[in-house]
What does this fold into?
Amino acid sequence: MMTEEERNAIVTIRLQKAKETVLEAKTVFDLGYWRLAANRLYYACYYATSALLIKNGYTAQTHAGVISMLGLHFVKIGIISKEQGKFYGKLFELRQTGDYNDIMMIEETDVQPLIAPAEDYICFLEKLIAQEVV
It folds into this structure.
């Protein structure tokens, strides 16, 4: 069991990783590495989502578990919109496609529209964590 101090330290680290990883995504996007940009966008949002879960005492062992916990504890009760929940799920699917599907290619047009919403998602979760609404 984590102490409150340990939990807060991990949350801070995860939020910092989220912000750094968005910058990585933008950098590799500008270099034309669409698959890698999709991967980094997903992980940026994953770090922020896991920070939200940890802050509120929830743990998940898998990426699918993080999606499930987000839906159960935040989307279902209206703290996070269904659209934001779907957005996070879409990033996960795109990352899965890029990492494991040898046939489908990720293009610039798949990734570019996701950059600003990913930044907004992370900012929103950071505000939720700061407010301690749950």
